[in-house]
Amino acid sequence: MTSDTPKMNGAIAATSLLGLLLLWTVLAWLKADPKVLPTPLAVGQIIQAEAASGELAHHMLATIGRVAAAFTLAMGLGILIGIAMGLNRQIDRWFSAWLIVFLNIPALVVIVLCYLWIGLNEVAAITAVALNKTAMVAVTIREGARALDPKLGDMAQSFRMRPMTRFRHVVLPQLWPFIAASTRNGLAIIWKIVLVVEFLGRSNGVGFQIHLYFQLFDIGHVMAYAFSFVAFILLLEWALIAGFERRVTAWRIG
Prior knowledge:
This protein is an all-alpha fold. It contains ten helices and no strands. The longest helix has 39 residues, at 163-201.
């Protein structure tokens, strides 16, 4: 892999996004009704106005805080559960059905139940989002733990590695690609669930604003807030997640 590959990939991604904007522009021109499908320029002007007023930053930060808290909780619990189930067949047999149950409970049901049980507060919001994602992380990590190379485990045992040393230098490097995949998928799913949580029961955040402008039938503002957060996730992907994934999977190249 050459050092120019990330730059090339970035250029391709940027060109692809420009193509998407062009398609959006053409569709808006064909529709010729800004109340139904505003142009990218019109949505950009709304974003600029909301940013200038401070509203965009206020609601974006509220959503980012909820996403960060729920993501941290879901990843931490999911990794622990996944490793335990992947390395211990008895635990997997007993709790595999639990994972299936939690994977198939609709997110909306979990959100509503958390609001009814805990109340319309931040604890309920973050708990609901984390519960929806934890099972997904656990399944991915469990598959990674099952795929561990037994030869590397035998080598660690022959060198009489301590459990923590073995986990750090043998188990964890093999799990990093699965953790990276969970990170990417987790962010993509969690922020969408956070919007539903805010839509249903919070007084700030991107989801709250989308709910507000949905009631006003203001498609421009709905798209402005939605695409503002999408842009944030894209920047996070390019600035942090992609580089993190390349570093943790570099040992597999060769």
